[in-house]
Amino acid sequence: MNIYVLLKRTFDTEEKITIASGKINEDGAEFIINPYDEYAVEEAIQVRDAHGGEVTVISVGNEESEKQLRTALAMGADKAVLVNIEDEVEASDQYTTAKVIAQYLKDQEIDLIIAGNVAIDGGSGQVGPRVAELLEIPYVTTITKLEIEGTKATVVRDVEGDSEVIETCLPLLVTAQQGLNEPRYPSLPGIMKAKKKPLAELELDDLDLEEDDVAAKTNTIEIYLPPKKEAGKVLTGDLNDQVKELVTLLHTEAKVV
Amino acid sequence: MARKVLVLGEVRDGALRNVTFEALSAGKTIAEGGEVVGVLVGESVSALGQELIQHGASRVVVVEHAELAQYTSDGYSQALLAVIEEEKPEGLVLGHTALGKDLSPRIAGKLNSGLISDATAIEVAGGNIVFTRPIYSGKAFEKKIVTDGIIFATIRPNNIPALQKDESLSGEVHSLTVDIKNLRTMIKEVVRKASEGVDLSEAKVVIAGGRGVKSEEGFEPLKELATVLGGAVGASRGACDAEYCDYSLQIGQTGKVVTPDLYIACGISGAIQHLAGMSNSKVIVAINKDPEANIFKVADYGIVGDLFEVVPLLTEEFKKLKINA
Q1: What's the rounded Cα separation, in Å, for the pair A35 and A124?
Q2: Is residue B229 a contact partner of residue B205, using CB atoms and an 8 Å limit?
Q3: Chain B (243-272) residues lying within 8 Å, Cβ to Cβ, of chain A
Q4: Residues 125-164 in B contacting A (C-alpha not used; CB under 8 Å)
Q5: pLDDT one-digit tens code per residue, A220-243
Q6: How far apart are CA B94 and CA B101, in angstroms?
Q7: Distances from the Cα of A189 to the Cαs of A32, A182, A186, in angstroms?
Q8: Do B190 and A165 touch (CB under 8 A)?
Q9: Quick one: what percent of chain B has pLDDT higher than 90?
Q10: Taking CB atoms and an 8 Å cutoff, what residues of chain A touch B273?
Q11: SS3 label, residue B218
């Protein structure tokens, strides 16, 4: 089975966010595999181990993403592809990323594509379904279970807390929701092996794309931090009085009840 | 510049979800004096058409088909794309709900368009429609515009105020026949867990419990308070991991993102992952035994105390308030 994983390098959310010259300040920040994409890598490895085949991890970004791809290889993926668009594409958005990935995948034999359901930095959740649409294959988002039998797939999808049991067929794209699995940590031998696994670096040219083909359709005009919250009011005194005061404050000051 | 904007209504249990009215309001802003056309997709939904008009649509297009009884991306995209083909809109708005998140990227992929997901505010500025959306789990915001093609966005529930309903309004509800076929995904079963009571992602009041709730029974006082306030019950990941409640209640980076008017955190320490799911709530109340708990840093009001003492007292006080109101 040919399994592809869409992976994004993201800012660790534990990091404090600051802004420098209109952009999120990345200096010295810790970067990780987008946590939802970690579920995707883990699931791909499990499907391969059960059904045979090969797991290829793809990322669109810059050369920095090599580190996260190596981590996925250390977890057990077989191959990695990095499409480096940094020098060629000035403005990118989800349209760009999906177009680049689909362009690469359309020439591959695909049985299964797994992505995270959302990236914790941009938070749009667009790339997975966009890629499926461009490849004209079915997709199911926010899945918590995946079973494959032949070319049939049974998927459990999380829908705002409810679960749908869905039957569909391969080739298929799914996006991972929390609860799908417990991603493994790379083992030491895994890390050693990963250094020798193939990691191909491509540019737009290699995919027969021009910058105009993938130019963003949206533009960020400003990034800002939320206004700093003033310290809240911690009530004091007799507990009964505190509760009465709180209800009065919510009613007359905050006017939310 | 006047635009024609389509707004997809979302129906749950036979009624329009609130986010639909908010999306109509967003559609009005984007239309800049142009026409807002409501779209309804389902098995039998045309009766809801007038309600869209009373909330801001000038007319409604309905696509009804037996295969549209349940949402599937194949079925709904065929229906919505057929309406887009006929209406040729310059704007399109959906709610950023499970349905909107699943469907909108596919439509954008098909239209080769941009898409601004999860907008929390919309304004007209400098000749552009400017969308505000949270990034980095709500720790920062960005303002975005569409630079090419249709202005397409999904909006986060509870953030963009709906227009006042005007029951004197009525308009045309037009039915479009679409051949819905080749559904590649089949829903075999739906296990409903989150559907009791008020919808968590749209609730105006959320009462959330953390590890401090200590047990499944510990959620009872929270449920009573939620009932009195017409709100929904939520939970931190800690409470879900400890099996005090179902994961369908989880609020946070890996759970639901909520922005109610009032969020009452009971026995929640306030891990950064939890804050990602609720820190943009309008008013936050923290109840925790530990005065050093992180949750107090984001709270507007705090009570240091045992939730099992405080919550029942609060319920009683709110009951009194409701009686006197």
Answers
A1: 15
A2: yes
A3: 246-249, 253-256, 261-262, 272
A4: 128, 130, 133-149
A5: 999 999 888 777 899 999 999 999
A6: 9
A7: 20, 20, 8
A8: yes
A9: 89
A10: 13
A11: helix
Helices marked H in chain A: 35-51, 66-75, 94-105, 127-135, 188-194, 211-214, 239-248
Instruction: Give the SS3 label for residue A36.
Output: helix
C-alpha to C-alpha distance for A183 and A44, rounded to whole angstroms: 11
CA–chain centroid gap for B95, Å, is: 6
CA angle A112, A117, A119 (to 5 degrees): 120
A68-82: average pLDDT: 98
The first and second tokens of residue A58, run together, are 């793809």
Sequence-separated (6 or more) residues with CB below 8 Å from residue B14 = none
Closest chain B residue to A214, measured at CA: B112
φ/ψ of B23, rounded to 5, equals: -70, -35
From chain B, pick out residues whose CB is under 8 angstroms from the CB of A220. Answer: 142-144
Is the minimum CB–CB distance between B194 and chain A shorter than 8 Å? Answer: yes
Contact in structure between A137 and A173 (CB atoms under 8 Å): yes
CA distances from A111 to A106, A126, A161, A173, B146 (A): 12, 21, 28, 9, 34
Gap between the terminal Cα atoms of chain B: 46
The owner of tokens 């279970």 is: A145
In angstroms, the CA B83 to CA B57 distance is: 15
CB neighbour list of residue B34: distance below 8 Å, 6 or more residues apart: B2, B3, B4, B5, B90
- Please give the single-letter amino acid code of residue A27: D
What was the pLDDT predicted at A21? 87
